[in-house]
Amino acid sequence: MIADDLDTLDANQLRDALRAARAEAAFKQAVIDKLTHENAILKRLKFAAQSERFSAEQKSLLDETLDSDLAAVAAEIEALQPGRAAGERQQPRREKLPAHLPRRDVHHEPENTACGCGQAMQRIGEDVAEKLDYQPGVFTVERHIRGKWVCKCCERIVQAPVAPHIIDKGLPTTGLLAQVLVAKYLDHLPLYRQEAIFERAGHAIARSTLAQWVGECGVQLQPLVDALAAELLRQPVLHADETPVAMLKPGHGKTHRAYLWSYCSTQFSPLQGVVFDFADSRGGQHARDFL
Ligand SMILES: [Zn+2]
């Protein structure tokens, strides 16, 4: 319901619209409350983890995971209340990208620089946003340059819109994010090792920053996982298996046994897909919930 429509509605329709808006607001608030609660639990776990007898490597892994989860919850909260959270959330401090990295300019200009009045517009300036890109072993900086065009007689300004990015106003290109995710989940390279690899390539990226990126990518990718799971559930036959993984859980000073359940289509299906579902036990309930 957009505000302009309200003028044309009668009292009953207005009442319905108000009721729908109230229900939606209540639902969103409930989700925000749940996420805020999760946020608090994650922060407490992070605090508890400082005093545990985990090895340095375990601590680092746990820290990475908690940072990823915190970023994911923050991104979800922000998606639910764009205006408010953007202001509350502290603007990440944007460090300048090192001058020694090679630059590649990407120009974004308006398609049409003729003003409606017939005059040709003049370029009066530009905005430049730098993104960090990575080909294995080599960092480069993409400079996204958006010219500002003005028509002197109308005082009208035209500029190409900012291209969408996975992390709005964020540092990394999509390529760099893909690199971090593939290295972590396919090549099993923990973020603290990636931090060292990046440092050797000329630009260290803190593991906490990498963890935030992983968390935000997780939220962005969730609709794909949901779609794949829905597609798998339409298959006449599925294979499923569960495999134990060691899970670090603050408060007990040792690892716990958790399970990754995998569900995949058969080799005869035109859809070749696998979805992983994390569970804290091998109980059949988890399979029933998923299916
Ligand atoms: Zn004009």
Describe the structure.
The chain is α+β, with helices and mostly antiparallel strands and 291 residues long. The protein has 3 domains: 14-88; 95-170, no CATH class; 235-290. Helix content is 44%, strand content 22%. Helix 2 (56-80) packs across helix 3 (82-88), helix 2 packs across helix 6 and helix 5 crosses helix 6 (207-233). The longest helix has 40 residues, at 11-50. The protein is globular and about 70 Å long. The protein binds zinc ion. Residues 115, 117, 119, 151, 153-154, 156 line the site of zinc ion.
Uncertain parts: 85-89
DSSP helical segment count:
7
Tally the structural domains.
3
**Overall morphology:** globular
Helix amount: 40-55%
| Helix-strand makeup class | alpha+beta
Order of helices and strands: HHHEEEEHHHEEEH
Bound molecules: zinc ion
Largest sheet: 4 strands, mixed
The percent range for strand residues is: 15-25%
- Beta-strand segment tally: 7
Q: What's the average pLDDT?
A: 85
N- to C-terminal separation? 35 Å
Radius of gyration: 24 Å
